[in-house]
Specification:
about 350 residues, alpha/beta, Alkaline Phosphatase, subunit A, Gyrase A, domain 2, eight-stranded mixed sheet, four-stranded antiparallel sheet, 13 helices, binds zinc ion
Length: about 350
């Protein structure tokens, strides 16, 4: 049994067509193809932590791309999930695992140091490899690393291809460039699957995205920052409430006892249209469609709001278990927390 997960960062379901992504469509045709609902905020690190743990951010603790520790927002990857991941669970069963991430910060986010092998080593950006437009490893570099690690020799392997997110940020998710890149990433997927072809009848493949993107219409970052500064002071907080902006959302962290009061204050902020408590004292907030609350760097696409929660979800492979797994998945959208327990169940008795 070999299980391969491929995360195509920010891939939107509208790109999964036989014209744009024939390899992905063919994979799903023999298994299951649909969508999943990710967790809030619809950002990379909370959703990857959920994929590998099967837990919501309220349990794994990575409730935003950065989390508040001792009155300082620190990178989620430097904290890591607070519950065991698929790598850890499978390791205790003696199953070898591997992780290859275009975004090097995912090594810490997914606690992939505990996999049998991971890349880039130590979660440090690799030197001298080609980079995508936002500075993470280009898919060509991630693919080369994956092929070098002989992923098919591992019981479980996970690959994250980052460049689709970068291209959609720069040009917009509905741009010709994003459509062209969907086809490019489909070709990369084909190359990732190639080493598995000789052992296809022993292989299960899961291809997902971590969130979608929306076209950026305008920024309300200034108004939101002003309102939050007035309500809560410094972003790092006064020991009670801190706030953090990211794309088309923001995350506000307070104490459980202050939660009701903070909710009322957030609901009074004019630029916000959605206030969701994702864990006791943790709020994910957003404005209208395409409204940036985070940094405006001239990007055409971004994500974070609940509008971007929809993920691509495709299951395939030649293993006999694929048909029964497809039956267990049910109707779209499935819950993105399903993938970890589903994968672990394949190794039960291993
Ligand atoms: Zn992402």
């Amino acid at each position: 049994m070999r299980v391969l997960w491929v995360v195509i960062d920010a891939l939107c379901v509208d790109k999964v067509t036989p014209e744009l992504m024939p390899t992905l469509c063919e994979l799903g045709a023999d298994g299951w193809s649909g969508s999943a609902l990710g967790v809030l905020p619809a950002t990379t690190y909370p959703n990857h932590a959920t994929l590998v743990t099967g837990a919501a951010p309220s349990r794994h603790g990575l409730y935003a791309n950065e989390v508040l520790v001792d009155r300082e927002w620190v990178a989620a990857g430097s904290v890591g999930p607070s519950v065991p991941t698929v790598f850890e669970h499978l390791g205790t069963k003696g199953v070898t695992t591997a992780a290859v991430f275009g975004d090097q910060n995912l090594v810490g986010v997914c606690a992939a140091q505990r996999a049998s092998g991971h890349w880039p080593s130590g979660g440090v950006a690799p030197e001298g490899v080609p980079l995508g437009p936002t500075g993470y490893a280009a898919d060509s570099a991630t693919l080369a690393a994956a092929l070098e690690m002989d992923l098919g020799d591992h019981g479980f392997a996970m690959v994250q291809l980052d460049e689709n997110d970068a291209v959609s940020h720069v040009h917009g998710p509905d741009s010709p460039e994003a459509r062209r890149h969907a086809s490019a990433v489909d070709a990369v997927l084909g190359e990732l699957l190639e080493p598995y072809r000789p052992v296809w009848s022993d292989t299960v493949v899961v291809v997902v995205s971590d969130h979608s993107q929306e076209r950026v219409e305008h920024s309300c970052a200034e108004a939101f920052t002003e309102a939050c500064s007035g309500e809560f002071g410094d972003p790092a907080g006064d020991g009670e409430t801190g706030w953090y902006t990211d794309g088309t959302c923001a995350v506000v962290r307070t104490t459980a006892s202050a939660s009701d009061r903070v909710r009322r204050r957030l609901e009074a902020i004019e630029v916000l249209s959605e206030v969701t408590e994702t864990a006791p004292g943790v709020f994910c907030v957003s404005g209208g469609p395409g409204v940036l609350l985070g940094l405006d760097w001239g990007q055409r696409g971004d994500h974070g709001a609940s509008r971007c929660r929809t993920q691509v979800a495709v299951l395939g492979g030649g293993h006999g278990a694929v048909a029964s797994l497809a039956g267990r998945l049910g109707a779209s959208p499935i819950d993105s927390r399903s993938w970890a327990p589903l994968t672990l169940s394949l190794f039960e008795g291993a």
